[in-house]
């Protein structure tokens, strides 16, 4: 757990000698260290959005939608690689061999900062390899520290199962590759992985809903999951569930809303879908708060069951909530796992539930409310506002939503009065009245306001806060409280009022959404539940949450196993060879009676002298031999969960588990004139009566007793699991890419930790232990048939497929031949794929040589032809020119002849004339 530890490896500068090769010593623990992947390219974004109703949804950027990268011809194909990592989790699903180094394929190498870098293997000698990194560094490393990377063609595949090498860095890289291109959804076999973009991405809205409905888009999406759920519900007549998990801020609530949006769009028409969507602002106002991890953190888990009519239209819905932190009240369909300490105190930089701030900003006049910083319950954390959120505006949205779910104006006024009473309760202070530290409440405006708001006398309120009725034998005595007891009582009252109010509101919402008369029993449930938690200090809350996750994980494992099994049986193959790791041992550690964690906790909680230390000792005494348990020093113990080891500090376990209700406070509420406090009191009394016969019942005790928190939690969890068991589940795992809630940043260590915690890597592992790669006979024959040495053109695809398997000596235990498909163990297709690629490369080379040769010959012929042609042309041209010249020459000669003749004639005539003159003697 936790972030990965960097390797203790040394980097040397390439130029600092050693032949330009930096030497690395392998990490001593054999762990290849931290995680990650490079190749970051920025995405962009814009959208019409699914999130308009959440003001907490972060910044908006302009983004282009890009198609998903995928090759339908790609298959899962990994070489048979042994594990390099000695770390527990790595070891279980790594598959690395010397294959990588032998073939000099590109590999992942872990840098000292924990990130993974793509490395090219330059040379391998013995157990060492020389690699070159993208930044030009050349390093000598232990070959075992290299993990094979996938060929480029597999970059960004939309199902992790398509990766040839299913190792952690490859999974991380694939998710990062897609995340950088705003493709936030990726499949991991049957599971959808959703990475929180922390910005609006153009993947939602009516056009997308239409496209998924018409199947014109196939890339992974919450819409696709919701669509499958609707289809399977209608076709198989089986209820469906969409189970969304992830850590705080990972995007569960947004994902649940996106799924609801799709269901509402497809099953809408009656108008009830609008009401269902409008429950979100109410639940968020009362159940969400700003925490350091998320500005809009749901402090409760919820199950929304959406019912459908025969015609596929939504006919109603029912909401169950699971508030975080401790069970206060339990009804058949309602777990309030809520310590609600946030109502009375919250950490620096965090806020209490949104509704308090919204009320102060939106309706101060009506209830004569002061500024938020005037209320002690709100001003201890120095945090009043959330950037980009207008609390007054939100208040109006909540009021509007309350109208829509038919909470009357009068009831709304009462709700706000209860909230104001909680705020004023925090301002009640106490005065010392004797020297035994006994106190009574100061009769100031706070006391008067609370009394007025809940409808009781100030004297009664004072008595309820500063005294406690005790029953000793048959006598009732009144005990005065000390300052700390009075403060505890006041805070407990505030928390109870808030918890009851939340419960009452959910009840009203459920009444309004009540399943229509024409009930078919068909439903789709969306479970938005807190994921596995492991912090520096883990307390009772993490204990309950992780126990719940352990149960959900078992549900998840079994379902996946079942799916695999069904496919194998359908195709008639021997599925008994699939290994399957169950987390039953860990669940036994929690649930076993009488020596399980929960039973021992309950037992110790019943002892008046039981303390957190005696509880821790008891655990160590009885459970030390359990392989899933380890006693730690002092009050701590460690549990080996499916997602890793978690060390719990037992401080506060007993007190939180006992969760006593004070009868005085309940009686006060029952005597109030206002109707809500009366309802709250009767609910609490009913509850305590129902559970009074539990193991914690103390005969004659003064306090109302009930089942322990852990026991209640367990029984509610069983109910929830029973409900989920009867549905076909669809899993969505939300991942938070960074802790800064900032778009574009992808912290590999953080992502890896979550992938492990939410079992995504485990899905991959489970699938790998079966026959994860599968291909139809036709496709297999088409893809690899050309590799066969003999001519198989006339044979059927199955015979061709078998011939291929024989030719490549694939061991019988590595594949199964089904009726329609071939099933392969991990890595087998990789070998074929490699041969196919090499052969294709070879063919390409031969083709290119042949084509080159042909082209050369053709070129030479052309050249010769051109030379001949040129010589003809030139000769003809010369001849023509010569002819012209000759003609001219001849013409010149003729001209010359004539000129010369004429000249001679002229001369002759002159001489002749002269001769005649001379002869005549004149
Ligand atoms: N698909 C999404 N598109 C855009 N923004 C998202 C998306 N999913 C989550 N976000 C952002 O992340 C924030 C936290 O998400 P969300 O409240 O759903 O987390 P969560 O897992 O329910 O946390 P918590 O357990 O604390 O309630 C949202 O307020 C929103 O800004």
UniProtKB/TrEMBL annotation:
One of its GO terms (cellular component) is membrane. The keyword tRNA processing does not apply. ATP binds at residues 246-253. Residues 717-739 are annotated as: Actin-binding. Keywords: Actin-binding, ATP-binding, Calmodulin-binding, Coiled coil, Motor protein, Myosin, Nucleotide-binding, Repeat. Residues 155-837 form the Myosin motor domain. Residues 1-35 are annotated as: Disordered. PROSITE patterns: IQ, MYOSIN_MOTOR, SH3_LIKE. Residues 102-151 form the Myosin N-terminal SH3-like domain. GO terms for biological process: actin filament organization; actin filament-based movement. It comes from the Eukaryota. SMART domains: IQ (SM00015), MYSc (SM00242). One of its GO terms (molecular function) is microfilament motor activity. Belongs to the TRAFAC class myosin-kinesin ATPase superfamily. Myosin family. Plant myosin class VIII subfamily. This is Myosin motor domain-containing protein. It comes from Gossypium darwinii (Darwin's cotton).
